[in-house]
């Protein structure tokens, strides 16, 4: 949730930056830095989602099915051991 809030405010700063009246050099510098930070935050938000999706898919494929022995099988095993 905190990362989403950071993303929102960095985007808001990028939108308001042209109207703040700061010199062109600083405007360009801040635009590049905030843009790179926004890219970093968006990657940071997206990667855990993909990793979680891969884990859940793998768990579904590797699930095991267990069955109990039927009484007939138990009797035949007991007879074999005698």
What would you say this structure looks like, in words?
This protein is mostly helical and 82 residues long. The chain has 3 helices and no strands. The mean pLDDT is 77.
Poorly predicted regions are: none
Average residue pLDDT = 77
Helix/sheet category: mainly alpha
Distance between the termini: 66 Å
* Rg value: 29 Å
Task: Tell how many strands the DSSP assignment holds.
Answer: 0
Helix % is over 70%
Large-scale geometry: rod-shaped
Beta-strand content bin: under 5%
Outline the biggest β-sheet: none
Q: Give the H and E element order.
A: HHH
- Total of DSSP H or I helical runs spanning 4+ residues: 3
Topology, element by element:
Elements: H1 2-16, H2 24-61, H3 71-81
Helix pairs in contact: 1-2
In short:
This protein has 82 residues and is an all-alpha fold. 78% of the residues lie in helices and 0% in strands.
Features:
3 helices; 82 residues; mainly alpha; 0% strand
């Amino acid at each position: 949730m905190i990362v989403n809030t950071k993303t929102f405010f960095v985007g808001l700063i990028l939108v308001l930056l042209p109207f703040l009246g700061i010199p062109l050099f600083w405007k360009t510098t801040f635009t590049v830095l905030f843009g790179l930070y926004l890219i970093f935050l968006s990657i940071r938000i997206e990667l855990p989602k993909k990793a979680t999706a891969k884990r859940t898919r793998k768990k579904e494929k590797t699930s095991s099915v267990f069955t109990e022995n039927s009484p007939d099988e138990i009797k035949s095993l007991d007879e074999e051991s005698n």
